[in-house]
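Protocol step 4 of 5: obtain the predicted structure for the target chain.
Materials: sequence only (see below). No template structures provided, no constraints applied. The aim of this step is simply to have a reference model before the mutagenesis design in step 5. Sequence pasted as it appears in the construct record:
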Amino acid sequence: MNLDKTVCYCMKITYRKVKEAVDSGATTLEEVQKKTGAGTVCKKCCENLERLVEDFAADHRA
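Step 4 output (structure tokens):
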């Protein structure tokens, strides 16, 4: 996975920033939104963002 890929263009949030938010304790889309601002402007990325949060959170549970 390319962690430098952008997931939220409005806020310029990369996969890496989402992973860092999850690594620091965020486990839901809403928590990642609060930490990063991703998915809070046009909301077009929310579906992809939520899937990404779930994937990173699953890595912590494995």
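Step 4 remarks: Residues 1 and 15 are 9 Å apart (CA to CA). The longest strand covers residues 6-8.
Proceed to step 5.
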